[in-house]
Amino acid sequence: MSEIIDNKAQRIRTLKTIIKKLHSGEPAENVRQELKELVSQTDSTEIAAMEQELMADGMPVEEVQSMCDLHSKVLRDLIVESRPMDVPPGHPVDTLRKENEALLEHVGRMLEILARIGGLKDEDSPAGLLGEFRGHFNNLMDVDKHYRRKENLLFPCLERHGVTGPSKVMWGKDDEVRELLKALGEALGESGASAGEWKLVAETVAASALDAVQEMTFKEKEILFPMALQTLTEGEWGEIWTHSPEYGWCLVEPADEYRPPKPSEPLKAAALGQEEALMFETGSLKFEQLRGLLKALPVDLTFVDDQDRVAFFSEGTKRIFSRSKTIIGRKVQHCHPPKSVHTVEKIVGDFRSGKEDVAEFWIQKEGVFIHIRYFAVRDEQGKYLGTLEVTQDLTALRKLEGEKRLPDTGH
């Protein structure tokens, strides 16, 4: 491939063919030169588009995820480190970059400690070094805040522009990092391990977890962030900036120089005027009353319309699962990690077909018992209008016993 491929679609097709060769088992050296020439002509949006096309061709997202690290490792040696696009301090990308730098600093210190443990005699105790290692590990677990902002704020904005690959592939890789870090945390919980035992942990669990964190910072720096900066509008960056504090910061606080642009159009809460009311068969509610009622409900509501797009969520002050306005209009399938999308699709499919009307689940998270129910919403003729998700913290309710009557009444 000596000629310059000046057609973007052709470059994406060629890149896709090369990646398929790698995945089929062809040695990296066999395609290295071809890939090197192509990478010099390719930008981050084309790498993401290649992954998206592989999925559009029917390749399962899990398979693309498994390929992701393979071609990332090959590309890592070929991509010339990009010059960061200028953004003001405090811009969402500036904060994400600085968080990655802080994460890599902790990873580097952890690798140094593991090397020191490797120099101990097998029968020695690594307790002192592991104490230091645990401190860095605890800081590293802050990465979940970084990933949640990316998944719940950045990905929805990219999807508005038809860029769905990152939310499918990268979210799955984020979950892999989480699982690897969880396994490392469990290994650190084992007390009394010898240096010899920890050398084995270092070569397996720790190496995998730390490598996964490093790989993700590379993918974000060289692919995700440049692509997002080329794609999103200033208004969308303003949205991300506004909602970011809801998810928290990873290791560093954002700078304060960036300010989002004023919205081009003011948000319209509803078509109802202050004094107009919605009429129901059982009464009427003014708009402010309706809004206050929904906020006061002891449950979290999310409504997905008949096109599988998130249309509404309630504004409770103590939501169980975070929601931000960036999800409005987002396909519900993109609001869940890849491993659970098939469950979501089955629920919605059964509701749409009329096979089911209710689905419910319950989980325990950090000592909280969470009840999650899905209801098919239909009109009077039974036509499917969408799906309502109702989430409730039942921890306190499950402990109730006996009776508590209204004061001074027998009721």
From TrEMBL:
Q: Which domain of life is it from?
A: Bacteria
Q: Which residues form the DUF438 domain?
A: 15-79
- Per the UniProt record, one Pfam family is Hemerythrin
InterPro entries, A to Z: DUF438, Hemerythrin-like, PAS-like_dom_sf
- Domain Hemerythrin-like: where? 91-228
Coiled-coil annotation reads none
Return the GO cellular component terms, semicolon-separated: plasma membrane
Name of this protein:
DUF438 domain-containing protein
